[in-house]
Design a protein that fits this description.
This protein has 64 residues and is mostly helical. Helix content is 70%, strand content 0%.
């Protein structure tokens, strides 16, 4: 077994990269809150699904 840790096991130490990730996560948080609000307001399912897909794409961008 390789004693060196993989990239995924190491903490994120690049401040600029961390700042970018946190900024994207905060944006996603806002999208999710918007989804909750839309559901509470009884918005059409199609609108909710569009926003869910946008949120999913935003999450995928953080993961890549």
């Amino acid at each position: 077994m390789n004693p060196r840790k993989s990239k995924l096991d190491r903490p994120l130490t690049d401040p600029e990269a961390l700042e970018g990730i946190l900024r994207r996560l905060k944006r996603i948080e806002g999208q999710v809150r918007g989804l909750q609000r839309m559901a509470e307001e009884g918005r059409p399912l199609g609108e909710l699904l569009d926003q869910i897909n946008a949120t999913r794409k935003a999450m995928d961008s953080v993961a890549s």
